[in-house]
Amino acid sequence: MIGTIDEIAIRTDGVSRSYQMGDALVRAVDDVSIAIRSKEFVALLGSSGSGKSTLLNLMAGLDRPTSGAIFARGRNLAEMNSEDFAQHRSHTVGMVFQSFNLLPRMTLEENVELPLRLAEVERNDRAGRVREAVERVRLTARLTHRPSELSGGEQQRAALARALVNRPTILLADEPTGNLDSVTGDAILHLLQEINASLGMTIVMVTHDHDRAARFAHRIVTMADGKLTSDGIKS
Amino acid sequence: MKARDLTELAGRNLREALLRNSLTTLGIAVGVASLVAMLSLGVGLQELASKRLSRSGLFDAVFVSSRMNRGFGRPARPDPANASPAKPLDEEARRKIAGLANVVEVYPEIRFPTEIQFEGKPFSTTVAGIPASAKSDGAFDGMKGAFFSGPNVDEAILQIEFARDLSTQPDSLLGKDLALRYAERQPLPAEPSAGKSKAAAGGTAPHPGESDLSPGFSIVPREKIFRIVGVVETEPATGFGGFGRGRLLIPLQVAETLRIAQANDLREILRGTSSKGNYDSLTVRVKGPSQVKSVEDAIQSQGFTTFSLLDATKSLRQVFAVFDLLLGIFGSLALAVASLGIINTLVMAILERRREIGILKALGAADRDIRRLFFAEAGVMGLLGGILGVALGWLIGSALTFGTNAYLRRQELPPIDLSSIPWWMVAGAIGFSVLVSLAAGIYPASRAAKLNPVEALRYE
Ligand SMILES: Nc1ncnc2c1ncn2[C@@H]1O[C@H](COP(=O)(O)OP(=O)(O)OP(=O)(O)O)[C@@H](O)[C@H]1O
Ligand SMILES: [Mg+2]
Hints:
The structure holds two protein chains of two kinds. In chain A, about 35% of the residues lie in helices and about 30% in strands. By secondary structure, chain A is of the alpha/beta class. The longest helix of chain A is centred in the C-terminal third of the chain and has 18 residues, at about 180-200. In chain B, helix 1 packs across helix 10 (about 365-410), helix 2 packs antiparallel against helix 8 and helix 2 (about 20-55) crosses helix 10. Helix content of chain B is about 50%, strand content about 15%.
């Protein structure tokens, strides 16, 4: 899992995703080629509607490109069958959303355990893995709470633990601080930074906030109208 | 996803939308219940009818007669279909038939008109000999008192009409004695003495030329005391063509020892045929209607003529098969409506759980997992609905039986068991319910599995 900085974690090759809206063709992502290296912390910036979420969903294996290729672990996502596509979502990537997306009727522990159930991890191994992930986001005291009993920041940390629990190689986060105040948001970003540094996990994070992107990420990629407009590695 | 996790999640989802899922399950249960109620009614009525029929003694009996005396006074015709020679229906033939497989009892029909003396008054009636096997065939189920305590006891059972002739209080007759008067046929002693015999029949001289070949007999009036042990409402059958005419019933073996002078004794003497000890006909009681055919064939191969009502039972079964089919179709329609309920519930659940499905997919669930999850939920609802439905169907059947019996009681008729739920119906109904539910789950499950996660997650 931990490779050299030059290893490619995920790469898109002329990838496009368009939607037919009546007579108009909306090019949400338009011919994007980008390579994300292992252990990189990438911030994806751009105005609303520029196609950030669409690109992230393509990398996450939640959506298939209209054209182009996406390579992860040497395989093209665009050509995978639905079974392998599910395996990609299960083992290669972990997702964090702006609106947390925890299952409301499950406790924190059960929410975090869910990816392990889906990945058919042995029952005996699950408890330890759940505890490890929950400890990493410092929520051990809240294991038996339901999402409605947690604060926004705690919910996002729970979602983060759930994304980490199956030990993916890439963490994809779509505006993880969008629903949080700046202090709580910063705490989440610190957590991501810590995960990136200590676990060497590749992170791609969508954000509106250029300032924060500059503070936490290694590399800032900007999009406009579905295209990449700039790609810069911080020194 | 592993089966255990799948069932856990499915159970969880079912509990979460408890009201809606319970209503759906109830819908299935009502469908299964109507199916079970209708089928149990069909089976129950069928059992009732076949029990009644076997009580009538007609469907598990074979009536045997000799080919020699087929038709009165006419010579026996050779039967080309059956090459075996005609044989007399005598004691030996009776033993042979009794020794056949599946034969319960072989007995002659004994019935004679006579006079009885009860509390000093004479009554004329018809006496019938009742075989021991009649006890179990149900005709005496509703009787007052008891069946004969043994095959050789001097006990009598009265038919209710006759009992009413004897007393206005038929119940009070139990335990009382009556005297049966009959004419006994006695072989003549070596030197016939007409003076001793009072009756006329034996007194007329036998054909002179054949006097040594066919011994004559005398008729002696006799009297025998019988204790009344029971009063029966229905008129038990004692053989083909004989049902309903015996009003005073005594054990068959006792009746046989009475050596009653019969009408054709006279004719035999006149014809000079020595058929003494031969039977006109015998009734063969078989274990069940299904064995009638084989027993009949075996008896025919021994050289006798047989008769049974086998074909009648066949067409009766056919009628009931069609009846069951119709009831089953109506029940299945009810279940079809119930499965529409399942489809509706699960399709509604997809709309409601779009987001959840999207999240599960984002976390690594395959299409197959989602499909199986919905499938499992449909299956569990089908299983629970099936179990509940069988219980409900049983309740409906019991209620129908209860109501019918309340009505029958008011009509002073014996109660009946209207519905019957055999174990195969329980298993079949539950299995059917699960299958139908799974089939109903196919469409919603595959729709849920195909849901695009990006779109599913967009729903707030
Ligand atoms: N399912 C869809 N059907 C039609 N058009 C869509 C669909 N999904 C996205 N789009 C369009 O694609 C474009 C990019 O959308 P996307 O959600 O990727 O933008 P975004 O950069 O994430 O914006 P935001 O910052 O507001 O989240 C938008 O113009 C959007 O309207
Ligand atoms: Mg977006």
